[in-house]
């Protein structure tokens, strides 16, 4: 039985399937859900945890290293043969028998009175400096602790300790009703909020065997693309800051602020919280949307000219932080990071939602900071084009509303795996409901795969280039620290 | 009268240097589409830090506490020796070699301060600053070497009279100005060599050596940072700039020149990104090369 668990998963990986979710349940089941990007079929491989042990996939499938460490920390199931079973989420302060997702106790445990830091992996030897950065940083960003092993100005090894602000969202969602879940899911992460909300809405609709009609689908596309524009604007603003190009940094932040004020005006929220729910999505008028995009283009074009023509900036990005194609496969890289290194993976091409939209997918092959920068530039412009196309369709269709969503949600039951392409990559929710309440909710955002890849990419680069490489990945902490 | 002009010049530099810093910051803010903070911000920041509690890292020594004064002092001595109004009272010490070594002393103490803060960033900043120093010194020496050639002794004197007597020295003068400008950008820790505005510790050079400072020590270091720009800009303009007959018009001219420099600094910083650390030696070698070229051209031109 264990052998077939490993073999079956490897088979799908080799066949080019994408791993959506690696789920553990309180009942001791493990599920790996694979997606065929061509025929859109999902395949479920599962096994039973025996005596709190299960065979690890990590040696054959390095991309699940963190999933298995997480299962080990939160459920206490031990992946046999895992090469690095240091705590990922646990801290030394957790009592030894405290496994929050397995025990589900509402009483907080008695925290142990010890230092909170987990041991770091470093290089030892003559002339090697260990440099620790974070978890609190000088800028206004989230918490991450990075331990660099340096030789001179060069990075030999990077150990990234995330999960500094673990919120226990998955446990928080359990036992919630459908109405309650929506508000929490909307706030998992401000960068990918619409994507998370859409995953939840799709899950409820799938279980209810209800399909959104084109006007509703269009409203969701508009929201998803608005979010992509916002996120890419932010990332494009941050990359110049990594090389002291303050002018491009500040000017792009001003464009982003304009966009956010527009989102607030059109949809009622600067980060688009609470805009998508089962059977619904926030609506706007074609005129408002058209005007918003037109004005954005007016501000965007000069900025694009400024950065494209800047020799020093382009020179600093080229050849830095190169992601190799084999690492994209090995680590299961997602989103812009994967597409800038030659992998044609954009969930919009798999999602039925986008079937009517002729999305042009962007790809680069260099895998460096520059490739990631220009993939974002091109994707942002493609999103603007999609928004303009959406405004045209809105005008054509008028305000005819689709059939209202359901009935009584209290008898929904079953498990479903839904996904969308968030600005940070393939974002997956693995949801199990029983009689309209959540029994298990697993969230695997795109950044979850990209963080270990970042730590793998940095060695060999100058330590002063780390901020630049980091910003070009622009990984979300809260999607991981959920 | 010479005494009054010199003392007035020194006081102007001492009191206005934080304002000059503010002018650069405001220039940059405007080019970034921001209003930016008040040009007087640095005075307020220094006053705030001065009245704050001063803490010292547990593992640091007396060096950490001496360093802020020891980086400020050489700049003050340099300032005193500059003939700000074009001429100095008799027997006033003004010597190019002294300036050179005082700046080296200042750099030395900046490095020590970073090392003695006992933090990783301080050590890294000290290592980078010292590495840069080995490139800055030859470049600065080459740029300043011009003045031995002109005056045949090491005194700080305006180059302008020599230009009037020999038009052939105009080209070397231009080269020397370029060389000095390049090396001063590095010495000041400005773009494209170092970014004074960053919060990214891993990319810092000069700022990294100051990360552990607060309170009065930080206020002193900030004053030194602003003074370094104003003092060296004044020195550069005294040597290379025009020289008027009246002491007072010279003082007014210096004020205008230094203000122009700070605005130009803002423009330059808005145009450039930071160089890769390993490209900086090439930048400094270019500065030194131009300086040496100017030196030889001038040597040839004046002896013909």
TrEMBL record, chain A:
Question: How would you describe this protein's topology in the membrane?
Answer: Peripheral membrane protein
Q: Provide the protein's localization.
A: Cell membrane
Task: Name its species.
Answer: Sulfobacillus acidophilus
- Please tell me one Gene Ontology term that the record gives under cellular component: plasma membrane
Ranges for the NADH-quinone oxidoreductase subunit D domain? 251-396
Q: Does the keyword Transport apply?
A: yes
Q: Which UniProt keywords apply?
A: NAD, Oxidoreductase, Transport, Ubiquinone
Query: Which Pfam family, an example, fits this chain?
Result: Complex1_30kDa
Q: Name the Gene3D superfamilies on file.
A: Cytochrome-c3 Hydrogenase, chain B (1.10.645.10), NADH:ubiquinone oxidoreductase, 30kDa subunit (3.30.460.80)
Q: Where is the NADH:ubiquinone oxidoreductase 30kDa subunit domain?
A: 41-105
Q: What Gene Ontology molecular-function terms does this entry list? A: NAD binding; NADH dehydrogenase (ubiquinone) activity; oxidoreductase activity, acting on NAD(P)H; quinone binding
Q: What is this protein called?
A: NADH-ubiquinone oxidoreductase
Automatic annotation (TrEMBL), chain B:
Q: Where are the transmembrane segments?
A: 6-24, 62-85, 91-109, 129-148, 168-186, 217-239, 251-268, 280-299
Recorded GO MF terms:
lyase activity
Membrane topology, as annotated: Multi-pass membrane protein
Does the UniProt entry include the keyword Lyase? yes
The species is Sulfobacillus acidophilus
Output the InterPro entries linked to this UniProt entry: ComplexI_Subunit1 (IPR052561), NADH_UbQ_OxRdtase_su1/FPO (IPR001694)
Example of a GO cellular component annotation carried by this entry: plasma membrane
Keyword Transmembrane present in the record's keywords: the answer is yes
Pfam families reported in the protein's UniProt record: NADHdh (PF00146)
Protein name per its UniProtKB record: Formate hydrogenlyase
Which PANTHER family does this chain map to?
FORMATE HYDROGENLYASE SUBUNIT 4, FORMATE HYDROGENLYASE SUBUNIT 4-RELATED
Annotated compartments: Membrane
What keywords appear on the UniProt entry?
Lyase, Membrane, Transmembrane, Transmembrane helix
